[in-house]
Amino acid sequence: MESQVSGHYSVLLQESIAGLNIKPNGIYIDGTFGRGGHSSEILKQLGEQGRLIAIDQDPDAVSYANQAIKDERFEIVHASFADLEQICEARGLTGKIDGLLLDLGVSSPQLDEAERGFSFMREGPLDMRMNPGQGQSAKDWLQEVEPAELAAVLKNYGEERYAFKIARALSHDARQGLINTTRDLAEMIGRVAPNKEKHKHPATRSFQAIRIHINRELEVLKTVLEASLTVLAPQGRLSVISFHSLEDRIVKHFMRDQSRVKDLFPGLPVLVAGSEPVLKVVAKPVFPSDRECAENPRSRSAVLRVAEHL
């Protein structure tokens, strides 16, 4: 997910940039800067009049961008990509963006820094917020959430088959003040989960589900996809890298639905009137090569989808 320059690996780097079909003097947005792997590659392909706006809600990523990239064509914005429409409107760029890149999920530095609380592989405070300055931490949420709501989150966002069993035990322990760190959470789930999948920690699905809920990741993704229809210029490209099936399903259905004629009166037996497609899917889904998966195991679940604004 991150740049080789910063010691991290940008997944599907060349493929996602190729999907943008970069024009030297175009205007592009990297909606998930991370550590700048994709942004750096975009800048290499831009001419003197080109422009790149990067967005990230993580203050560490913004700080890194300000230190690492000294380029008049580049701007970093500390915000969620859910604010894409407002960011473009404030700069007079609505309908003028030639390409939008979204590299979804958690960045490598976020996973590797124990204090961020994203990974059960590292002992750290149970936080999980992309922007630690906003919203509620995972620890605080777990101490107050009702077991039924927690079970729904684990089931819907983690596809956890033992959601109700885990939720009852987790809610009880959290309210007793026993779940304070990533290790506390991972060990508790390990004790409760009836079966353990081969080569997968029993807490994997629950960590994913809680993180998605805390950061409203799927709602935010839907928001930015809808906003792309407003901000992209004609022939502007949308290039999206997903890392789990819930994200990819949303991206796939969005691109499919926006590339078809929509029946404006679906209750009638024949098509009376329809809206024209606004996107065109320009390539089949792209997956990492065996070599990339070997070099960076985190890329194994990635999929890239690209569409063009009509």
Structure description:
This protein is an alpha/beta fold. It is built from 13 helices and 9 strands. The protein has helices spanning 13-20, 37-45, 59-68, 84-90, 108-112, 138-144, 147-158, 163-175, 182-192, 204-215, 217-231, 245-258, 290-295, and strands spanning 27-30, 51-56, 74-78, 97-103, 232-242, 262-263, 274-275, 279-281, 303-309. The strands form 2 sheets. The protein has a 7-stranded mixed β-sheet, sandwiched between helices. Strands 6-7 form a two-stranded antiparallel ribbon. Helix 3 links the parallel strand 2 (51-56) and strand 3 (74-78). Helix 7 (147-158) crosses helix 8 (163-175) and helix 7 (147-158) packs across helix 10 (204-215). The protein is globular.
Taken from the alpha-carbon principal axes, the silhouette is globular
CATH domain class of the largest domain: Alpha Beta
H-E string: HEHEHEHEHHHHHHHEHEEEHE
Oligomer: single chain
What's the CATH superfamily of the largest domain, by name? Vaccinia Virus protein VP39
Roughly what percent helix? 40-55%
Structural class call reads: alpha/beta
**Tally of individual domains:** 2
Distance between the termini: 29 Å
Query: What amount of the residues lies in strands?
Result: 15-25%
Write the CATH architecture name of the largest domain: 3-Layer(aba) Sandwich
CATH topology term of the largest domain: Rossmann fold
> Which whole number gives the mean pLDDT?
90
Question: Total number of helical segments?
Answer: 13
- Indicate the radius of gyration in whole angstroms: 20 Å
